[in-house]
From TrEMBL:
Pfam families (alphabetical): adh_short (PF00106)
Plastid among keywords: no
A GO MF term: oxidoreductase activity
SUPFAM superfamilies the record matches: NAD(P)-binding Rossmann-fold domains (SSF51735)
Record's protein name: NAD(P)-binding protein
Coiled-coil positions: none
Alphabetic keyword roster: Oxidoreductase
Organism domain of life: Eukaryota
InterPro entries on file: NAD(P)-bd_dom_sf (IPR036291), SDR_fam (IPR002347), Sec_Metab_Biosynth_Oxidored (IPR052228)
Tagged with keyword Oxidoreductase: yes
Organism of origin: Lipomyces tetrasporus
């Protein structure tokens, strides 16, 4: 475990020279994304942040931006409104960012929630959480990779509820559309595996960009209600058991933000970023080199050595072929 003291000491080294110059936060209007933005701005560094969120989040986001600027006048936070579960909107937002920036140092992806209710689809025919947690994230990555390449410490951090993937997934039905095949836990395992195999492939093809798939552990992000149907049994379980339990055992907002800022900037993962003198992390190929890092809530690297070879052999190619079919029209 990386101690909280070590994490804060690393983050204290961030300044105009070491902090990300330009960062994109997809899902930063609440929860871990918001906590991490606050931690980054609080370093006092001169940073530019593109904050992407839905129209319904704009009022709260603008109030948040005002507080950030008051805390650090050198920080520029730019609001970008869009319905990010839609791939067409994701493409539009990426084009806006690419028109304004020639380089991005950090892409931080957190949009999503646990879909414990019934299956719901977007206007594009995708299950809404899969659109948020996988397809839109991968579209952001592919659009912004040219801006991420060549940076001194460029990183893509994707936060998922199940960062430690399982080998058992539905390869013949990756979108879980068949009746009775969709469920909250099953969907999260499915999306978690997809969010591991594709980034590993992209990390291998782009050795100058560090990829992190982060499992944050229990954190009260405020989204725990979002995936339940109103007045369902699951909504009562969330209210009576799950939310109080998360509040009891989970990280505070501040610590969660500091831990994810550490993952976003420290050379502990791949050797690129704020210098790290302790034991370096091991990537998904079990090497002390750049690549994809599976990072748990204690900021330890967990190569998942029993599962990753199976996913790499049996699932990676099929998932990538399917992903290309879905997102190709939006590239």
């Amino acid at each position: 475990m990386v101690s909280y003291k070590e994490i804060k000491a690393s983050n204290a080294l961030l300044n105009d020279a070491t902090a990300p110059r330009a960062a994109v936060f997809f899902g930063g209007t609440s929860g871990i994304g918001k906590f991490t933005i606050k931690a980054l701005v609080s370093t006092g560094a001169s940073v530019k942040i593109y904050l992407v969120g839905r129209k319904s989040s704009e009022e709260g986001a603008r109030a948040f931006i005002q507080k950030l600027h008051a805390n650090n006048p050198k920080a520029e936070v730019v609001w970008n409104e869009g319905e990010v579960s839609l791939l067409a909107e994701t493409k539009r937002l990426c084009e806006v960012i690419k028109s304004k920036e020639s380089r991005v140092d950090l892409l931080f992806l957190t949009a999503g929630y646990a879909p414990f209710g019934t299956r719901k689809e977007t206007a594009e025919g995708l299950e809404i959480v899969q659109g948020l947690e996988y397809y839109s994230r991968m579209l952001f990555v592919l659009h912004l990779l040219p801006l991420l390449r060549g940076g001194e410490a460029s990183k893509v951090v994707s936060v998922s509820s199940l960062g430690i993937s399982a080998a058992t997934i539905e390869l013949d039905e990756l979108d879980l559309k068949k009746p009775g095949n969709f469920g909250g836990v099953k969907a999260q395992w499915q999306y978690g595996a997809m969010n591991t195999t594709t980034p590993e492939m992209l990390a291998n093809e782009n050795p100058d960009v560090t990829f992190i798939h982060s499992w944050p552990g229990p954190v009260n992000t405020g989204n725990v209600w979002r995936g339940t149907d109103p007045n369902s049994i699951m909504s009562w379980v969330v209210w009576l058991l799950l939310e109080p339990l998360i509040g009891l055992v989970g990280f505070s907002d501040e610590e969660s933000g500091q831990r994810h800022l550490f993952q976003s900037t420290s050379a502990a993962f791949g050797g690129r970023g704020v210098p790290w003198k302790c034991k370096p992390g091991v990537n998904s190929l079990e090497k002390q080199a750049n690549g994809l890092f599976l990072v748990n809530n204690k900021c330890d690297c967990t190569p998942n050595a029993k599962v990753m070879p199976l996913l790499r052999e049996k699932a990676q190619g099929k998932i990538w072929d399917h992903t290309q079919e879905v997102i190709q029209p939006y590239l």
